[in-house]
């Protein structure tokens, strides 16, 4: 079985879930009708207002239907059984209590929150038990404000016809037990995903896809007990993945090229200061092709920098460099990472069809590579211009069977957005601002541990 499983596309999984998804995806209880999406509408004569749920509007969608650009929809504690659609630009959707404002799909609705307007911020609430996504941010929106056909998974859509959504923020969100992705940014750029907790996703807890250039910052998140903690597919720089905790998934983090999405190949990501450990958890949903025991995987990714990450305790490999079909891994730099307790710390598994070159290693703390002379054949600063040797195939035991995503245990209570009840609305524009990955240190082994669910077996 290959170390990196071929990706399973959401449209296939959706088909297996049944026809109920189509109707639920298109509306799923939503009532909003605003169609402002450009994010640059003329200023309103009135100041932005706060619309409170349920005192001023009975449902979240009813509040959003009334909202104008710049307004704050402020949601009080409760369990809300609706699929929320945000179609008005520059709206802020916020819960007053992250752990008690819950958008619950009950295992039958497709999405928790779908954002198809620019400059929207989703913050300080929980989305759980959806068949597809907890929070979906996408420019794949048709003229009627609905999702373009194929946006529920991986049918390649033309970004010239569906321009990327420009400006988004998802922060202080708990996304738990969602059947595809916890937090999913697709065909969207100039955004920030920060201080979220994603668990129980049957594909990836956090996902950024189909953007070039992305201008996306993913920082200070936790993703545990997912099939994959974080996935960036055809998500090209500038994009930064900084100071996150990706632990006890089946696979910690992947950076991929994939022909199912636009903008092949993936290039230019920076992955720095992350803790990527113990991604061998059996009490996780199983991706159908069975990736397991891998910390970081790069498949067909090019010119990425992995800097000062701590990668440990992964039962098959700490870091894997591989091809994707005819796309080789090119020019990836692995510098000052600390690797320990992995079956093999770094393995190079590019194919004979697309062997790759220019990948380099410098200053890493590690014990074993495959091939064993990899540090000598791929030195920095300029890497090796020749094709790197590929590690021989190794026989591995089958991964343990996964569990249904709805059966994954919930995380502990998570920290609140400061002053959530009173802070003014801040639309998601001019993001992500200045980013300095060179200042991100090697993380401690207990990075973000106070927000992490400890398994009974580990206590």
TrEMBL record:
<protein>
    <submittedName>
        <fullName>Nitrous oxide reductase family maturation protein NosD</fullName>
    </submittedName>
</protein>
<feature type="domain" description="Right handed beta helix">
    <location>
        <begin position="111"/>
        <end position="259"/>
    </location>
</feature>
<dbReference type="Pfam" id="PF13229">
    <property type="entry name" value="Beta_helix"/>
</dbReference>
<dbReference type="InterPro" id="IPR039448">
    <property type="entry name" value="Beta_helix"/>
</dbReference>
<dbReference type="InterPro" id="IPR051550">
    <property type="entry name" value="SCF-Subunits/Alg-Epimerases"/>
</dbReference>
<dbReference type="InterPro" id="IPR011050">
    <property type="entry name" value="Pectin_lyase_fold/virulence"/>
</dbReference>
<dbReference type="InterPro" id="IPR012334">
    <property type="entry name" value="Pectin_lyas_fold"/>
</dbReference>
<feature type="region of interest" description="Disordered">
    <location>
        <begin position="370"/>
        <end position="459"/>
    </location>
</feature>
<keyword id="KW-0677">Repeat</keyword>
<dbReference type="InterPro" id="IPR006626">
    <property type="entry name" value="PbH1"/>
</dbReference>
């Amino acid at each position: 079985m290959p170390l990196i499983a071929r990706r399973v596309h959401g449209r296939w999984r959706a088909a297996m879930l049944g026809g109920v998804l189509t109707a639920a995806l298109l509306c799923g209880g939503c009532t909003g009708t605003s169609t402002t999406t450009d994010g640059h509408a003329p200023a309103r004569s009135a100041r932005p207002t706060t619309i409170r749920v349920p005192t001023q509007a009975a449902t979240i969608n009813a509040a959003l239907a009334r909202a104008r650009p710049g307004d704050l929809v402020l949601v009080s504690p409760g369990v809300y059984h609706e699929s929320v659609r945000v179609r008005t630009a520059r709206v802020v959707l916020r819960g007053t209590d992250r752990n008690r404002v819950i958008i619950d799909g009950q295992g039958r609705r497709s999405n928790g929150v779908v954002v198809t307007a620019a400059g929207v911020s989703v913050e300080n609430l929980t989305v759980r038990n959806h068949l597809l996504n907890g929070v979906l941010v996408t420019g794949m929106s048709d003229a009627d404000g609905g999702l373009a056909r194929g946006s529920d998974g991986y049918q390649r859509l033309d970004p010239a016809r569906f321009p990327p959504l420009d400006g988004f923020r998802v922060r202080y969100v708990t996304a738990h037990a969602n059947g595809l992705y916890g937090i999913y940014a697709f065909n969207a750029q100039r955004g920030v995903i920060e201080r979220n907790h994603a668990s129980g996703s049957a594909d990836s807890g956090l996902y950024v896809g189909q953007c070039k250039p992305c201008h996306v910052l993913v920082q200070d998140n936790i993703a545990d007990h997912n099939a994959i903690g974080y996935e960036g597919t055809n998500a090209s720089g500038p994009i930064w993945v900084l100071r996150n905790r990706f632990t006890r998934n089946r696979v910690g983090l992947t950076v991929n090229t994939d022909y199912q999405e636009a903008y092949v190949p993936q290039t230019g990501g920076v992955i720095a200061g992350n803790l990527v450990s113990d991604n061998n958890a059996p009490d996780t949903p199983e991706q159908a092709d069975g990736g397991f025991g891998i910390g970081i995987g790069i498949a067909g990714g090019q010119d990425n920098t992995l800097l000062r990450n701590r990668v440990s305790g992964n039962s098959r490999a700490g870091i894997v460099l591989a091809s994707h079909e005819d796309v080789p891994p090119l020019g990836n730099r692995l510098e000052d990472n600390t690797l320990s307790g992995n079956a093999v710390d770094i393995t190079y598994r590019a194919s004979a069809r697309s062997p790759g070159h220019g990948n380099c290693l410098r200053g890493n703390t590690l014990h074993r590579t495959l091939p064993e002379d990899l540090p000598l054949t791929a030195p920095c600063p300029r890497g090796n211009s020749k094709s790197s040797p590929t590690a021989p195939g190794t026989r591995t035991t089958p991964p343990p069977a996964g569990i249904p995503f709805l059966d994954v245990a919930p995380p502990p209570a998570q920290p609140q957005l400061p002053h959530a009840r009173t802070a003014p609305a801040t639309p998601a524009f001019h993001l992500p601002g200045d980013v300095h990955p060179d200042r991100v240190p090697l993380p401690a082994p207990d990075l973000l541990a106070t927000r992490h669910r400890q398994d009974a077996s580990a206590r």
